[in-house]
């Protein structure tokens, strides 16, 4: 029944389990029992999961209209932020959550498997993941992903995120429907850059105006056999010196064959002209070909805990 609470400007560290929990797995029906409208901003969470390793930095259960922003979450063995909690396509009160401008890194640390920088589950109409900086997600075995839309994730917008150095892929969708990824940067995935697992008869996601930059592994991993996804106006670049546009493969296909299947008709293979990709400066130089595709530069200057932040009481009426 907690509604319109604030968890703001705290340092939370050296914990046996997770940092902040919102809601519960059971779905409440009575209005006074429902959980919604929490504000969780400008917190520093680190050294988590020291006893219960599969703990999450911030986890949201069956709760909507929450604002999770400007948090710095790192040094934990499992997911940084999780939002759900229904497995599959059942309706849920978990909707209209805004998760933005968080700095999430050093997640997993090779201890556990099946995790993400941000993890989602179930139908989440109106939920937005934007302007997050996610990097260094490393699993023990499988499943070190940056953005991870798991079972039934639906109607989620992911935009203006920068994701790099994730073991399995920068983005993975297990299965879901009508998700949108636009204007993101995915870089330096170790094994793959993008992954899609379960194939279904509806549109899994739309992937447009993104930059994918890598120097190891494959561009696409897992299952891309059916055509129920939409991809266009993207820029792809394999920075290995022995590769070229002619040798890049899209799930085993050349770009020409991939386009014959209806994907990436206006996308290009080209160097995006990052300022200093080796040192993870993904700002674009003037003349970047990504700009001609409609990509808009991502401003990360306010990511994480704000330096000049002053605690204010939010109007919750």
How would you summarize what this structure contains?
This protein has 317 residues and is mostly beta strands.
Describe this structure in words.
- The chain is mainly beta and 317 residues long.
- The protein has a single domain, classed as 3 Solenoid (Pectate Lyase C-like).
- The protein is built from two helices and 30 strands.
- It has helices at 255-260, 289-292, and strands at 6-8, 11-13, 20-23, 39-41, 44-46, 58-61, 67-69, 72-76, 81-84, 98-100, 103-107, 115-120, 123-130, 133-137, 144-149, 153-159, 162-166, 169-173, 176-177, 179-182, 185-187, 192-196, 205-208, 211-214, 218-222, 230-232, 235-238, 268-269, 274-276, 281-284.
- Strands 1, 4, 7, 10, 13, 16, 19, 20, 23 and 26 form a ten-stranded parallel sheet that branches. Strands 2-5-8-11-14-17-21-24-27-28 form a ten-stranded parallel sheet, with no helix packed on it. The protein has an eight-stranded parallel sheet with strand order 3-6-9-12-15-18-22-25, with no helix packed on it.
- It is globular, with a radius of gyration of 19 Å.
């Amino acid at each position: 029944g907690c509604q319109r609470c604030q968890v703001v400007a705290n340092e939370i560290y050296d914990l046996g389990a997770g940092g902040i929990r919102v809601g519960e797995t059971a779905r409440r029906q009575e209005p006074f029992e429902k959980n919604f409208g929490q504000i969780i901003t400008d917190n520093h969470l680190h050294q988590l999961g020291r006893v219960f390793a599969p703990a999450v930095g911030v986890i949201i259960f069956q709760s909507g209209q929450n604002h999770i922003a400007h948090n710095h979450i790192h040094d934990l063995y499992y997911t940084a932020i999780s939002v759900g909690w229904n497995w599959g396509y059942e309706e849920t009160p978990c909707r209209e959550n805004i998760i933005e401008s968080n700095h999430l890194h050093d997640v997993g640390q090779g201890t556990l498997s099946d995790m993400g920088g941000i993890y989602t589950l179930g139908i989440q109409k109106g939920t937005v993941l934007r302007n997050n900086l996610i990097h260094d997600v490393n699993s023990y075995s499988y499943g070190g992903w940056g953005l991870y839309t798991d079972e039934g994730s639906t109607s989620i917008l992911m935009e203006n995120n920068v994701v790099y150095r994730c073991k399995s892929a920068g983005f993975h969708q297990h299965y879901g429907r009508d998700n949108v990824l636009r204007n993101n940067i995915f870089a330096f995935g170790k094994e793959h850059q993008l992954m899609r697992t379960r194939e279904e008869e509806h549109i899994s996601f739309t992937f447009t105006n993104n930059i994918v930059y890598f120097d190891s592994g494959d561009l696409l991993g897992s299952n891309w056999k059916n055509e129920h996804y939409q991809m266009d106006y993207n820029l792809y670049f394999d920075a290995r010196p022995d590769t070229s546009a002619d040798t890049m493969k899209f799930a085993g296909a050349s770009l020409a064959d991939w386009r014959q299947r209806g994907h990436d008709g206006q996308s290009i293979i080209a160097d995006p002209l990052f300022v200093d990709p080796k040192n993870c400066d993904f700002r674009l130089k003037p003349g970047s070909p990504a700009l001609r595709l409609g990509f808009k530069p991502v401003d990360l200057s306010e990511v994480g805990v704000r330096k000049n932040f002053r605690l204010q009481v939010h109007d919750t009426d």
